[in-house]
Design brief:
This is Asparagine synthetase. Helices cover about 50% and strands about 5% of the residues.
Length: about 350
Amino acid sequence: MPLYHETPDDPMNQDSQWAERISEDVRMPLIKVGRVVDGNRSFEPAAEYPNNEIPEEPIYWSDIEGYLSRISEMEAGTSRIHVTGFGGDELFASMPSSSWSCLREHPLRLRDIRRQYSADYRIPPHQAILDLTDNTDLYEELRSSFLDAEQGHNHRSSPCGWHDVILIPEFLTTKARDILYSAIESQFKHADIRPLSPDRSRHQALYSLSMQARMLNQVNRTFASDDITFRSPYLDHGIADYALCAPISARTEGNLHKAVLYRALKGIVPETIFRRPVKGDHSYSLYLAWQRSKDSLLNSITGGELDEEGLIDMPAIRRRASMPMPDITFLFEMQRVAAVERWLRHANR
């Protein structure tokens, strides 16, 4: 059974060296399938979908689309099951609200948890205590955050809240904003908004796992005609249930990356793998993909479906895009623009 590996674009990333060591240790062949950026289709709204399989909704895994396509082609005539790592971080790595959860597990350690939280996020001790002891429910936090975003208030978002900061792209037109606000208000009025777990970290993990499972289902529908199935052990119900039963505080014990997974594999996987200083980070590759595709992206969406519908402000997008190094949030927004534009073009054919 071969192991597949994409070479990181960041010269500081040592994942390739680790992949080679692991391959030698488990005595399985390592097949390199190009650089990470080579398979990134994040900013290509004119691209055809693999196998001309039009999805039911926009896909948000275009950053690994090329990799999956190459795997599908390379495994022709071999094993038709390809194991992926979807969901691994959600089950075993720290969540944004880990400090909040750790305090509920160890209330007498407030001082130590507060000190670490203050250092991690560079916030004053008083604010750290307010964040860590906050008990606002999910509905109220979502509604408050959305209203602040709608009104353009620069409201501080707690690092250990239920969700990430809500940001509405500056380049959305008034028409787009009205549609967005109306849809969200309808959800607040009629939907039963409850957390997936009363613990914030587990809620975040479960929410992200559900999104990972949704993406993996999309991937399998897209490549079904190639007679290949992509799976992830981390999305197995039994494994997920057992992993989420572990205390949140156990995830960061001993300064180990994914400490719970290390203990489960102790004696099988070397400890050094869990202590490596630099792990996979694809933001470098995202910037490379942006620089490669920026001009064609801007030309493609100008006069495109979203522009014609009056939903995006192209001059505003071009102003942001003209920056030598746009912030990562803008790149994520443009990923979504490209994904929706691409899907609309195929859906309207």
